[in-house]
Design brief:
With about 375 residues, this protein is of the alpha+beta class. It contains six helices and 26 strands. It has helices at about 5-15, 75-85, 135-145, 200-210, 275-285, 335-345, and strands spanning about 1-5, 30-35, 40-45, 50-60, 65, 70-75, 90-95, 100-105, 105-110, 130-135, 160-165, 170-175, 180-185, 190, 195-200, 220-225, 225-235, 245-250, 270-275, 295-300, 305-310, 315-325, 330-335, 350-355, 365, 370-375. A nine-stranded antiparallel beta sheet has the order 6-2-3-4-18-17-16-10-14. Strand 3 and strand 4 (about 50-60) form a beta hairpin. Helix 1 (about 5-15) runs antiparallel to helix 2, helix 3 (about 135-145) packs across helix 4 (about 200-210) and helix 5 (about 275-285) packs antiparallel against helix 6 (about 335-345).
C-alpha cells in the first residue's frame, strides 16, 4: 500500500474516527485505526466494539500509488499529522515486512502495524429497523439540551445513555440520573406507526454530537434491535478535496428505560417566573459558599421575592434577594446548585418558569416560550 496525500486531507478523515478509539484496550488492535486505500478513495475505520466510525473521502488522481489496507496506531498517527506543517505532503507506505513508513519533507516516521483482516467490525449488514428522518440541526439540539443529565456511573446501566423515543411524528430525547430529568423533542418522520424506544450509550451520544452540524440537511437514522446507524456527509475544509462521508454505528444499551412520564410532575399549583440571566448569575455567586460536596442552596419564595442562601461547615454564608413573579404562599426549598445551573445553561429564553407543588416534591423547570423542552429537578432533603 502506498499513498501520497496532503496532511490536511489525511487529518480531516482521521480526526472524524479517532474519537471511537480507546487509548488502552484489552485488544491491542483496537488502539489502531484501519486504513484502506483504493484508486478512488481513502477509508479509515475506528472502533471500540461499542461505537464504530468509518470515514471516507475521494482521492485525487495519482494519490493512490498502490492499493491496500492495514491498521496503524491511532493516536500516534494523529499526533504525527498534527505536528507537521500545514502545507505538508505525506508519503505513506507499507513495506513488505508490514512496517508503516510515513515521510514528509525531512521527517521520517516508522510505525508498527497489525493485519487489517484482524480488525473487528460491528455487523451492520442486513440491519433492519425503524427509519427516522430528522435534520442535523434538530438532532444536535436534542442531544445538546439533554446530555448533561445522563448518569456517569450507575448500577442502573440504562441511565448512562440517552433514550431516543419515536412516537408518530415526534422524536424525543430523554435523560435522567435519578436526581434530575431532561426531555427535548422535535418533529421527525418515521416508517413505524408504533412507539419505538432505543437507548444510545453516553460515548455514542458524545461522538454523534461532535459529528453533527447546525445545517438543515436531512439525516436518516436506522434504529434496529441492537444497533443505531446513520451516515453523515461532512464538507471537507480543503475545497480541492471531496466531502467526507462518515458512517456512524453504535450498539444500543440493552435495558428498559424507566417510565419518565411518571416522573414529570403534573398539576403544580405554584408558579414562579424569574429573569434567566439574573437567576443564573445570582445562583453562581451564592453557590460559591455552599458545601463543596453537597452544593446545597436554599431558595426561599415569598410574594414577588426570592432569597437565595448558602452556608458551609466553615461558617461561611451568602445570601441574595431577587425580584420575581410569585403570588402564592411562602415556601422554602433546597437544591443542588449545579443541577439548577445545568438546566439554566441549556435554556435560551429571557425568563425561566418553575412550577411547584410542595417543598419536598420535584420541580418542573421550563422556558415559558419553549414547550418542547422539559426539565425536572428533585429538591434536596433538608
Amino acid at each position: 500500500m502506498r499513498l501520497k496525500i496532503a496532511k490536511e486531507s489525511l487529518l480531516n478523515v482521521l480526526s472524524h474516527v479517532v474519537g471511537a478509539v480507546e487509548r488502552r484496550h484489552t485488544l491491542n488492535i483496537l488502539s489502531n485505526v484501519k486504513v484502506q486505500v483504493t484508486e478512488q478513495a481513502l477509508t479509515i475505520t475506528g472502533s471500540d466494539l461499542e461505537v464504530e466510525l468509518v470515514a471516507s473521502t475521494q482521492l485525487a488522481d495519482g494519490a493512490c500509488l498502490q492499493a491496500g489496507d492495514t491498521t496503524v496506531p491511532a493516536r500516534k498517527m494523529m499526533d504525527i499529522c498534527k505536528s507537521l506543517p500545514s502545507a505538508a505532503l505525506i508519503d505513506l507506505q507499507i513495506t513488505e515486512d508490514q512496517r508503516c513508513i510515513l515521510k514528509s519533507g525531512n521527517s521520517r516516521f516508522v510505525l508498527g502495524t497489525l493485519p487489517a483482516e484482524d480488525y473487528p467490525l460491528l455487523n451492520t449488514e442486513n440491519t433492519q429497523g425503524t427509519q427516522v428522518t430528522v435534520t442535523q440541526r434538530e438532532l444536535k439540539r436534542l442531544f445538546e439540551k439533554t446530555s448533561f443529565a445522563m448518569a456517569v456511573q450507575d448500577v442502573r446501566f440504562y441511565l448512562t445513555g440517552t433514550l431516543l423515543e419515536i412516537d408518530q411524528n415526534q422524536l424525543r430525547a430523554v435523560t435522567t440520573d435519578g436526581h434530575r430529568l431532561a426531555l427535548c423533542e422535535t418533529s421527525a418522520t418515521s416508517n413505524s406507526s408504533q412507539l419505538v424506544q432505543a437507548i444510545a450509550p453516553r460515548k455514542a451520544v458524545g461522538e454523534l454530537q461532535r459529528l453533527l452540524s447546525v445545517e438543515d440537511e436531512q439525516l436518516s437514522l436506522l434504529i434496529g434491535r441492537e444497533l443505531l446507524n446513520v451516515t453523515i456527509t461532512i464538507p471537507n475544509r480543503d475545497k480541492e478535496q471531496g466531502d467526507i462521508t462518515v458512517r456512524f454505528t453504535t450498539k444500543l444499551i440493552d435495558g428498559k428505560f424507566p417510565d419518565y412520564r411518571r416522573v414529570i410532575p403534573r398539576g403544580g399549583d405554584k408558579n414562579v417566573v424569574i429573569a434567566h440571566d439574573v437567576f443564573k448569575q445570582s445562583l453562581q455567586r451564592v453557590a460559591i459558599l455552599s458545601n463543596e460536596k453537597l452544593r446545597g442552596v436554599f431558595l426561599n419564595f415569598d410574594a414577588d421575592t426570592l432569597q437565595l442562601r448558602a452556608n458551609n461547615p466553615e461558617q461561611d454564608e451568602a445570601s441574595e434577594d431577587l425580584a420575581i413573579q410569585y403570588a402564592d404562599t411562602p415556601m422554602e426549598m433546597s437544591f443542588n446548585a449545579q443541577y439548577l445551573l445545568d438546566v439554566l445553561s441549556v435554556l435560551d429564553g429571557d425568563d425561566v418558569s418553575m412550577t411547584m407543588t410542595e417543598a419536598n416534591q420535584s420541580v418542573l423547570v421550563q422556558d415559558p416560550t419553549q414547550q418542547d423542552q422539559t426539565y425536572v429537578v428533585m429538591p434536596m432533603r433538608v
